[in-house]
Amino acid sequence: MKILSAQKTREADAWTVAHEPIADIDLMERAATACAQWLYEHIPGTRSVRVFAGTGNNGGDGIAIARLLAEKGYRVEVFLAGDPDKLSPNCRINYDRLPHPPGTLRENPSSGLFPKGEVGVIIDALFGTGLTRPVEGFPAEIIREINRSESLVISIDIPSGLFADQSVRSIKDPAIVMADFTLTFSPPKLAFFFPENHQYTGEWVLLDIGISGEFISRAETSDFMVTRSDVKPLLHHRTKFAHKGMFGHALLICGGAGKMGAAVLAARGCLRSGAGLVTVRTPRSGVNILQTAVPEAMLAIDPHEQFYSELPVLENYTATGIGPGIGLEKCTQSAFKLLIQAGNPMVIDADALNILGENKTWLGFLPRGCILTPHPREFERIAGKSANDFERNQRQREFSFRHSCYIVLKGAYTAVTTPDGKCYFNTTGNPGMATGGSGDVLTGILTGLIAQHYLPLQACLLGTYLHGMAGDLAAMDTGQEALIAGDLVNYLGKAFHSVYGEL
């Protein structure tokens, strides 16, 4: 699914009005109806609702929602933050449709609007995606009163004061609504995918209001949200007479003294991803552990007792994954340098990334099309610090372009960047996956997919989606707190079923 800029979203609205055809006031009614339907399902009619509306189209959405809620018997009060003589045309129409004129706020917000101890519902419809400068003055005071209230706060389309396409980190004491929920309209906003904005968006819900699919399909963008419908077509289907030789031979260089669990998890993830054969390069001390814990994997035994120290013969392998648990020994670093110079299809993670961070001149040796899977601190070590999440995302794109590689930046909405400057945000996964070993499983999955001849971008999108889906399915049974990395391996089969549509 495409993510469009605020400007492109406005163009999509205009295109829909011009070509569907539908009047723009009716498109606003669609948006209000979609929000009201969500509110009917989630907010009891016994709760009081206060709608704070601006004078633009976002305010028009809010006023229309208030009317629809009142028709269903909700106790709704509407407060207009601005001059009634300066309403946008569609806001004016909805203003006139209200059975009673709303209260008008022109001075400091009265404390009576936010009674202490009353846990009602506030609907924020002050400013939409057209905002281009920080909120100041009287509107900022309203926003701060909303944030100090004890009510459930629901923002319409975007929390008022938040920019859709740029960071607010540089603004001192920004006035931005801190919503519990944001009811936003498809396509989604880029700002929703970055950690720095979660305190404002809360849980965001994507509502379809019938924006022209023709316009969206033609719109140019470099940002995408990955859903099941995007990854299902990527799956390779097995034929009746398939055999293991058709599904590749993956080499995993993982594990070291005290960290053989990383190799076990990566190997299990690789096997469960469908690789035909899996070999683990292990120091001699890990032989018994791996042969006991992962009997399906073969071993290529390194001459060193404790660490990876020597480049193996690579001609029999279709893909290599390296990094989890290998350590930073000098012999390990030297062997890694030779490996990246060999140019094989490769997934690079964990300690291998830290080696690159200590030897940045080696970045020039990275094989074209390789996949790097850092978490934010590991990415910082190889690409430098960033002032905010938007800047980090731009650095990520530039790094992928400069080194012709794919970056899988792990976290909520794991971001995959490509050599041509695109970014794909994954939508599966949950906080229970923030546990040791989760990344090792992902390394195994990605290596297994590359070994099966998935293209790098296909492997990144499918692998991150399956990894997160396995976590979601596991959390449904174990809860997030009790989830461990091994659960991701155990639920990977069900994740495949989910993508196929068999769950």
Describe the overall structure.
With 503 residues, this protein is an alpha/beta fold. The chain folds into two domains: 6-221, Rossmann fold (3-Layer(aba) Sandwich); 246-500, Ribokinase (UDP-N-acetylmuramoyl-L-alanine:D-glutamate ligase). The chain is 40% helix and 15% strand. It has helices at 6-19, 24-42, 57-71, 89-97, 137-148, 198-201, 213-218, 228-231, 260-272, 287-293, 330-342, 350-358, 376-383, 389-403, 438-451, 456-478, 485-490, 492-500, and strands at residues 49-53, 76-81, 103-105, 121-125, 152-156, 181-185, 203-207, 223-226, 249-253, 277-283, 298-302, 319-322, 346-348, 371-372, 406-409, 415-417, 423-426. The strands form two sheets. Strands 8-17-16-15-14-13-12-9-10-11 form a ten-stranded mixed β-sheet, sandwiched between helices. A seven-stranded parallel β-sheet has the order 3-2-1-4-5-6-7, sandwiched between helices. Strand 16 and strand 17 form a beta hairpin. The protein is elongated and about 80 Å long. The relative contact order is 0.09. The mean pLDDT is 95.
